[in-house]
Amino acid sequence: MTRARVPRPPVRRAGGARGWIAFALVLCGLLTGGRQAHAGGVTFLALADVSAERVQIANLVAAAKFGTPAPIDDPAREQVVLDTAARRAAELGVDPALAVRVFRDQIEASKLVQRALHARWTAHPDEAPAERPDLETEVRPRLDRITEQILRHLRDTEPLRASPTCLRALVVGYRVVESARRLDHLQELALGRALLSICV
Ligand SMILES: C=C(O[C@@H]1C=C(C(=O)O)C=C[C@H]1O)C(=O)O
């Protein structure tokens, strides 16, 4: 079914956000003298950015499922996401158990957004999206690409995750990204949920 118009979530701002994030990377280095947000020149900006993109895509997932029999919780699909993450993690030299923990968080963050949006759209049908993207052909392939990116960022941030400055650096990355991507409050909460296990 295709309705007239879709209020697209701010996923399309990603290009602009990337410019800001590159700028923030330089600025963080200058402000902290490389001590607080970095460990060996590594930051969490890229990981936080792609996690925020995943959270923003949850708006599209919610739109794809709203008014259809497709459930928000899809355990079979979740298992595919987790199995893929574990297998690719092993290939990339990332601890598969860590990858599974992180992707469980990412999945919970997505469902948090989906549940809140479905509740909002049910209560206020005039706010429901006008268009329904296709989950299988449009939305899940984007999530699959992000899986690979997240795993590579997990690999690249290994020294920072093991460092005592991990949480501080994670919050720096979180703040830069939520501002650069202009996340709404729901997405801010979800991004925090998505990143919960990074330093634990
Ligand atoms: C995103 C979806 O919704 C839920 C969240 C998932 C995820 O974040 O990867 C996977 C399955 C669903 O439980 C989806 O169905 O694809």
Description:
By secondary structure, the protein is mainly α. The protein has one domain: Chorismate Mutase Domain, subunit A (Up-down Bundle), CATH 1.20.59.10. It is built from eight helices and no strands. The chain has helices at 14-32, 45-65, 75-92, 96-123, 135-156, 158-161, 166-180, 185-194. Helix 1 runs antiparallel to helix 7 (166-180). It is globular, with a radius of gyration of 17 Å. The protein starts with 13 loop residues before the first helix and ends in a 6-residue tail after the last helix. The relative contact order is 0.22. Residues 1-14 and 32-37 have low confidence and may be disordered. The ligand C=C(O[C@@H]1C=C(C(=O)O)C=C[C@H]1O)C(=O)O binds at residues 61, 73-74, 77-78, 81, 106-107, 110-111, 140, 143.
